[in-house]
Write a structure and sequence with these properties.
Helix content: 25-40%
Largest sheet: 6 strands, parallel
Binding site for substrate: 170-173, 188
Distance between the termini: 85 Å
Organism: Streptomyces glebosus
Number of domains: 2
Number of strands: 12
Order of helices and strands: EHEEEEHEHEHEEEEEHH
CATH superfamily of the largest domain: P-loop containing nucleotide triphosphate hydrolases
CATH topology of the largest domain: Rossmann fold
Active site: 87 (proton acceptor)
Keywords: ATP-binding, DNA synthesis, Kinase, Nucleotide-binding, Transferase
Protein name: Thymidine kinase
CATH architecture of the largest domain: 3-Layer(aba) Sandwich
Structural class: alpha/beta
Length: 221
């Protein structure tokens, strides 16, 4: 039976690599899939992994109807044997419903990949809907690690190397700024729950380690 499968994990756990592996395995057997992505690091209309692998994809716009798009491909003579949707956390809940309809009405497997929670430890709306609707939710077994060596379970956002827990849920780009200062670089890091709660990133941990507990005092007269 066709399934809607949600592959989830933190950043750096190999979601996009697995998506590319599934695409390779199926296409090498003569199957043809529709690949969708959103806000990929490699740019518009790409699905890429941090290992350097990349393939073409359809950029999933805010107003895209996935079910109508797949039906359009089939109606125009195209072949669709399965669907891959990467960065699915960025999709709207109604778009997840459309992917579920692709499974139920068109009887195609749909493989969705995404992180579950944002930098505030809150579920992305798209990920929440996938948890609600998916036939299976698979937590990826390639464990990302916190700077302390423990399993990373949370995604953290840094602005100017300082962890933040407020702001827009989705930030595309690498700098932000305000009227009070110069632009600051936006970064992301995976942390264990303990250090996410303490807002302690690798940079702040290094700063603490480099700071002497007791300042040297010269008692010479």
């Amino acid at each position: 039976m066709p399934e809607l499968v949600f592959f989830s994990g933190t950043m750096d756990c190999g979601k996009s690599t697995l998506a590319l592996q599934i695409e390779h395995n199926r296409s090498s057997r003569g199957l043809q899939g529709m690949i969708y992505s959103r806000n990929d690091r490699a740019g518009h209309g790409k699905l890429s992994s941090r290992l350097g692998l990349v393939t073409e994809a359809v950029e999933a716009a805010d107003d895209m109807d996935f079910y109508a798009h797949v039906v359009g491909q089939l109606s125009s003579g195209g072949r669709v044997d399965y669907v891959i949707a990467d960065e699915a956390q960025f999709l709207a809940p109604e778009q997840i419903d459309q992917l579920a309809r692709v499974v139920d009405d068109l009887e195609l497997d749909v493989f969705a990949f995404g992180i579950s929670t944002d930098f505030r430890s809150k579920l992305f709306p798209g990920s929440q809907r996938l948890v609600e609707l998916a036939d299976r939710v698979e937590v990826l077994q390639v464990e990302a690690l916190c700077w302390c060596g423990a399993r990373a379970t949370h995604n953290a956002r840094t602005v100017g190397n300082r962890m933040v827990v407020e702001g827009a849920q989705v930030v595309v780009g690498d700098v932000v700024g305000d009227a009070d200062g110069p632009p600051a670089e936006v970064g992301y890091e995976v942390l264990c729950r303990r250090h996410h709660r303490r807002r302690q990133t690798s940079a702040s941990a290094r700063a603490v380690a480099l700071s002497p507990d007791v300042l040297p005092v010269d008692n010479a007269r």
